[in-house]
Structures are given as C-alpha cells and as structure tokens.
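Renewal narrative, Specific Aim 1. Our central claim is that a sequence can be written position by position from structural information alone. The example that follows is taken directly from our test logs and has not been curated for this report. It begins with the structure tokens describing the chain, in the order in which they were read.
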C-alpha cells in the first residue's frame, strides 16, 4: 500500500501541474510521467498475483483506467516535446531574423536613429554617430535638438507636432550641427511607431547628407525651381495632402486642388496648383483649407518657413510662384463676379485651358478631369446648371469628351 500512496501522491502532483511555473522544463515532466508509468506496471504485476473475487474485478478495472490515463499522459508528453522542439526552432529563427535586421540597422550607409516621441535618442547606428561626430554610446539619452541650429529648432518641433497629429511619415530638408563641426545640409525622414490607441511612442529617423553644389553650379541653379535637390513626397489621386503651419509645398509634378468649405458644407474651389506652383496653410487666412491630389501621382517638395527666412536666394526663387498663385486667385474671383452663368463657365474654361491644357488634334484637352460639382463651385452656381450648360456646349460642338471623359475645348471657341 505504500506504493499506492506514492502513486497517489505522484498523480496528485500531476493534477497540480497546471500551476507550475513557465520555466519548468518539459523533460522533467516527461521523467515524472515515465516514473508513474513504471509504478503502475509494477503495481499491476503484484496485484495480479493477489487478486481475490470480487475485489479482483474492481482492482482490474481500476488498474485498467489508470493504465489508460498513463498512456494518455505519455501521448501528451510526446506532443509537448514536439511542440517544445518547434518552439525552440521558431525562437532560433526569430533570433536569427532579429540579428539580421540589427545588422542592417547597424551597418546601413545612411544615419539611422530611434528616438522617443520627444526626440530623445534611444538607438543610433554607426553612420549616425559618424554624421553627428559623437560615439554611439554617448548618443543614447541625448535629445536630437542639441544637433539642430537654434534658429531652426522651432521648425523642428513643428514638424514633430505634425507626427503627433496623425501624419505617419514626414520628410523635409534641414540642417544639422555635428559636435565640433560645421552645419550640414541633410534630408530628414521620420516615421512614427504607434501603439494600439494610435499614439506615437517611438520615432524612426533616416538622415542623409545633401552634397552642396560647387560654387559655379550653385550660381547656375540660383534661379532654378525651389524644389531642386529636395526629397519628393508622392500622393495618389484623391488623397488629402497634409498641411504644416511652418512649411509650404512646392509642386514638382501633377495637379493639386485647393478648396474650402462653406457654412452649409459646400466645397468651394480656391485654386489649382500645378508644376512650379506652391501652396500651404501659411499662405491663407481661411480657417478651413484643404489640398487634394487631382492627378494620378502628385510629386511635392517641402520647404520650411525657417529656410525661406534664412536663405534670400530661396525667397527670391519662391516669389514668382507666389505671384502666380495670386494671379490665379484674382482670376477665379473675377469669374464669380460675372452675372451670367454662361459667361462664368466660358471664362473658367479659358482659365483651365491656360493652366492645365495640353494640345491635341481636336483642340486643347484639359489634362485633369474635374467633376461638375467642382466646376459649379468655381462658377458659384449649381451642379445641375453646369451639367445643362456643358451639354449645350457639347451639342454645339464647342467641346467634346475623349475616351476618358476629359474635356477637349475647340480652339476657335475658347
């Protein structure tokens, strides 16, 4: 009976196995199962010689049930061993993958950093340490703002606030001040790592030094487009373009619709920004101001207001773009001042012909398709009226539609 008590004690310990700590090894569990199985075999052998009816039948049934339970436990042990091997293999694969990405981060040719949401450095690779002229171990825990020139720190913090407002990725050009070094022109890209609630808890930085042009090349490019040698942001058709209060966008390719909303919720077209034109919330006094990509792809360059203030050549290069936007706004205002809807529509189509027209065999094709609602908002009328007037112009042969429903204006009529 002492062996029975020992067996009961072992089985009881197995029932309490659910409360074992996670660090108990599977092989220890397997050894105990093997011990119980051996005890059951020995008990069955000894009991077979001493069975007496009717107790023998009851004992036989009990031993049979215990044997079945022991076999089930052995199967469970085998499954646990197999799962343990699979988990060990998966852990080894994950560790190898983690090391691979760590090596990619460490030996990346560009400067890479990981900071908290306030810009305090958590991790930095070798290229970042070389760029900032600080060893990797001393970079950890330092705020990135100490490497930003004082006159540009306000713009830097404004860019970070854009990430807090929901922008997943920001790119701009700025300057860094390495320790004991001269300022460097760099392209900055930063992405937010967000938690489940959408709050940024870490920032990933990519810094790339922009080579300064030779003096002759700089003089040659002094009057070039302000987005020269800047990282470009790409937006797809229909995508809302984020507006930053301390920066402006410069269109390199494509067309952007600028609009606002009336009190009744109607959208009002304020302008169209095409190549070599600019826009931004800092250029308007409207509380509601929205920019939407109209082309399949819109390429934009970003320039901070601090850059414009610090660089007279850049300010002079931007002035013609501001003048162009101002002229377009005045033309749109003049359109809404005409009394007849027909005259407003004709004037708008002539403006669109100049702004976004491209010559084709039948006349001039508007490169971007505007909806009747958008045309109506620019003409200060209703969509129904615009549709009826356009149908009349189409019946008169003054306008036609191509296969993609783009308007083609007859040159003799507009």
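The sequence written for that structure reads:
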């Amino acid at each position: 009976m002492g062996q029975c008590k020992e067996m009961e004690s072992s089985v009881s310990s197995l029932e309490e196995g659910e409360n074992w700590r996670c660090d108990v090894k599977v092989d220890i569990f397997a050894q105990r199962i093997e011990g119980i199985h051996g005890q059951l075999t020995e008990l069955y052998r000894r009991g077979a010689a001493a069975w007496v009816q009717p107790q023998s039948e009851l004992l036989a049934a009990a031993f049979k049930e215990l044997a079945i339970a022991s076999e089930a436990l052995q199967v469970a042990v085998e499954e646990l061993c197999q799962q343990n091997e699979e988990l060990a293999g998966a852990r080894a694969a994950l560790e190898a993958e983690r090391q691979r990405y760590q090596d990619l981060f460490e030996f990346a040719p560009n400067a890479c950093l990981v900071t908290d949401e306030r810009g305090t450095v958590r991790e930095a690779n070798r290229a970042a340490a070389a760029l900032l002229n600080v060893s990797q171990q001393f970079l950890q825990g330092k705020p990135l703002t100490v490497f930003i020139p004082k006159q540009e720190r306000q713009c830097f913090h404004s860019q970070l606030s854009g990430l807090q407002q929901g922008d997943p990725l920001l790119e701009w050009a700025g300057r860094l001040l390495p320790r004991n070094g001269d300022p460097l022109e760099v392209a900055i890209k930063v992405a937010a790592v967000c938690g489940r609630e959408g709050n940024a808890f870490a920032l990933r930085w990519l810094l790339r030094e922009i080579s300064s042009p030779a003096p002759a090349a700089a003089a040659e490019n002094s009057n070039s487009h302000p987005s020269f040698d800047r990282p470009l942001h790409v937006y797809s058709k229909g995508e809302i373009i984020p507006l930053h209060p301390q920066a402006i966008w410069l269109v390199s390719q494509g067309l952007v619709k600028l609009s606002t909303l009336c009190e009744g919720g109607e959208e009002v077209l304020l302008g169209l920004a095409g190549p070599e034109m600019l826009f931004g919330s800092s250029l308007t006094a409207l509380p509601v101001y929205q920019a939407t990509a109209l082309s399949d792809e819109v390429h934009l360059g970003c320039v901070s207001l601090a850059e414009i203030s610090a660089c007279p050549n850049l300010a002079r290069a931007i002035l013609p773009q501001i003048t162009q936007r101002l002229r377009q706004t005045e033309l749109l205002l003049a359109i809404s001042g005409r009394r007849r809807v027909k005259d407003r529509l004709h004037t708008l189509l002539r403006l669109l012909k100049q702004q976004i027209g491209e010559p084709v065999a039948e006349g001039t094709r508007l490169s971007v398709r505007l909806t009747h609602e958008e045309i109506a908002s620019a003409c200060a009328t209703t969509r129904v009226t615009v549709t009826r007037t356009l149908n009349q112009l189409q019946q008169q042969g003054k306008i036609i539609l191509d296969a993609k429903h783009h308007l083609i204006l007859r040159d003799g009529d507009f």
